[in-house]
């Protein structure tokens, strides 16, 4: 007879290291939060940025065949540059977040890993106010 495994919370499964974090909203008390972030190396960022640039360069001639030609090609190049810049700017990835909205107390979490910004905007699913997540690096 097999034992059922202990339920594992998503907190334990998400990659990255746990860091202390705070959710702030002007005029309300600071709320502590659990967060897991992963530092991205220069090589990881450069690899993804160059893949985005290469994708833009490959797609531009193909979409440039469609009239009116230039806007599509420029758009593909611009999108490649935009995505490359985003990948290059991703110094840290936020993998997990669990906390509460400072205004209404509703739980806030993360649906998918995102680029960590400083401060990182967090939208409350209940009251829709936008708080800021601050992480100690
Ligand atoms: Zn709220």
Could you characterize what this model shows?
- This protein is α+β, with helices and mostly antiparallel strands and 137 residues long.
- The protein folds into 2 domains: 72 residues, no CATH class; 48 residues.
- It has 3 helices and 7 strands, in the order αββααβββββ.
- Strands 1, 2, 3, 4, 5, 6 and 7 form a 7-stranded antiparallel β-sheet that branches.
- A hairpin with a 6-residue loop joins β6 and β7.
- Zinc ion binds next to loops.
Q: How do the SSEs run, as a string of H and E?
A: HEEHHEEEEE
Count structural domains: 2
Average pLDDT over all residues: 89
Number of strands: 7
Structural class: alpha+beta
The proportion of strand residues reads 25-35%
Low-confidence stretches: none
Largest sheet: 7 strands, antiparallel
- Overall, the morphology is elongated
Distance between the termini: 46 Å
Radius of gyration equals: 20 Å
Quick structural summary:
It contains 3 helices and 7 strands, in the order H-E-E-H-H-E-E-E-E-E. With 137 residues, it is α+β, with helices and mostly antiparallel strands. Bound molecules: zinc ion (ZN).
Describe how the helices and strands are arranged.
Layout: H1 10-13, E1 17-24, E2 31-39, H2 42-63, H3 70-88, E3 92-100, E4 107-109, E5 114-115, E6 120-123, E7 130-135
Antiparallel strand pairs: 1-2, 1-7, 2-3, 3-4, 3-5, 6-7
The structure holds zinc ion.
The site of zinc ion has 8 residues, from loops.
């Amino acid at each position: 007879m097999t034992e059922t495994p202990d339920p594992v919370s998503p907190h334990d499964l998400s990659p990255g290291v746990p860091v202390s974090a705070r959710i702030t909203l002007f005029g309300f008390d600071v709320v502590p939060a659990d967060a897991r972030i992963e530092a991205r190396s220069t090589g990881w960022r450069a690899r993804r940025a160059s893949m985005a640039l290469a994708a833009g360069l490959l797609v531009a001639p193909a979409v440039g065949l469609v009239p009116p030609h230039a806007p599509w090609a420029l758009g593909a190049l611009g999108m490649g540059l935009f995505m490359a810049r985003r990948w290059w700017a991703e110094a840290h990835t936020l993998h997990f977040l669990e906390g509460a909205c400072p205004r209404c107390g509703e739980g806030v979490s993360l649906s998918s890993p995102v680029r960590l910004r400083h401060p990182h905007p967090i939208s409350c699913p209940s009251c829709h106010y936008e708080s800021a997540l601050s992480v100690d690096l």
